[in-house]
């Protein structure tokens, strides 16, 4: 049984803060500053260029990739780190559509994170030749899969509402129609058990700075199913995806399997922070985490619904249909969230009317859930959010 | 006049090491660990998600981009950080060829860094439709520019020999033929004065972990000439290049000017190290740096040629035709470099037969140049490199 009081102690949460925004940026692992100092002074400082060999920097995208692979149910050796999630979406899409050369449609849904849609839009615009991005409502994806679809591009958990797609079912529907399935795990990896291999995902991508706690700008990851690993053509054919990068050949030869999804020099400093963050996960069982997150989520929903009749639950109640966040709607959601943050309860706002709370059992327990609910209720009861200071939008939230 | 003894003190060079490999990975700025600790504990640790606003993380790709812009002669507001150099090459190429829709040729040369060629190869393979990458010898680029060429993709300074292209001349030749010029400044930024605006470059890209000393995996940069900034179409249409990323629109609208060359979440931790590294540059005049680098380079060439008759200079003697590194050829270059490193003089090897030495006046002076030459001469005189331990290739060099 996973000991969540032990994991809680492994994060730095500032005094007076209840942090329910780990679905946007995970908190600092206590061990990360020391790991980073070692990277800066002992590795970079002392080994200089030799660090690539002496400290295994070049291998980190694969070794850390496999540690994430465990959390998403990937076969060892088929997950690699690098770049940002948007770049990884581009890589997966470009590879997938070339595996279905007679088809021209990328199918996604309006609940997808906009950057995924933008990247697909950019790719089809670059390619021309009849390629299109078709976007339907989340509940209409399955019915829209037909033999024109090269790939579906689906984010498993909706970034606003926490609504969860059925990965096994949609993947099967895609395969039945001869299409490929690309899964964005931004709000899944580290949030719930994912089984990319067992459920047949063709490609999966995700980021590490949310539930995995790698810090701002931490690298993304990509998984390619073993059955495709030697066929996938890398559109972003960078030297570190070459079969022999240090031969400096003039022609590109893709590396073996997932290696070809590497592009440029990996972000070694960011990976040091990620390494410390992944150490926290070593003792965590994803089924334990899921059970705990649902229990805490239910508790939060019950508490808020009882005390805040003006808030409307945006997250599905059904466990199977939701991720690890709980969201409520209110016309003044922005101001309410600002008032909440001013009292030390940090969630976030998503346009137009969503109050979003990440339920992250690694460092959140009953006490935090209850205190957050009580604070939210007090703010609504007092009308404390109705203040010009809370209504002024910040540039970034 | 730039005070190079002052800049020398701002880098950590391990005891007993003469570091002539800053053209591969710059050394640790003394101020970087403390800046990183502040980022980790005070910014990420204490501000959590609020760091994006409170500490200006979201603005760093532009503000640090402009500090690099000064070093490459860019107009303020037209350089942005992010991703890796390979990704930035892809962005520049994809934008450029779409600005010349009737042309199908990307022209480069065999002296280019292979990743640039691979990225171009990946792009033309993705696009099909007659797009080709044409690669000629470096001295044949100018003659190969014709009205089929959409863009030339040229690395100013050859990563092996240090041979330098004439940016003004090739850019003019490209423009005369109606083509665009993309310059890779990997071995130029921080190595010599670059004048992207004055010399008419259409796009420029580069990395920060070499002469700019941002640490392993530091972010890349891209410059788009102001005259193209509102026309360039971003093929990698990520959300942070959107005009209003936090509106979460379902359709992509490119941001103003260089903003659209942003893709995903910026690497905030890597940028903290870069920020400390750029502080060192504040008092540095690029013309002073260039004069000093050439003086030191000449001294190294003279010393080595006098003492090591078996080494053949690979770098042009002519100042205008070389960058800030000095390279020699020898059939046993690999083993010689390993023997040299074992004695604390760190340069590097590039296949098949190049000994490469970065001349970086920020932390290298006459004493280091003379000691490096003496050590090299001793190794050759003694035949000390002819040892199986030095002949065994490492995976990464």
TrEMBL record, chains A, B:
Keywords: Hydrolase, Pyridine nucleotide biosynthesis, Pyridoxal phosphate
GO MF assignments: kynureninase activity; pyridoxal phosphate binding
EC number(s) recorded for this UniProt protein: 3.7.1.3
Substrates-to-products reaction catalysed: L-kynurenine + H2O = anthranilate + L-alanine + H(+); 3-hydroxy-L-kynurenine + H2O = 3-hydroxyanthranilate + L-alanine + H(+)
PANTHER family: KYNURENINASE
Family, similarity comment: Belongs to the kynureninase family.
Protein's name according to its UniProt entry: Kynureninase
Gene (UniProt): kynU
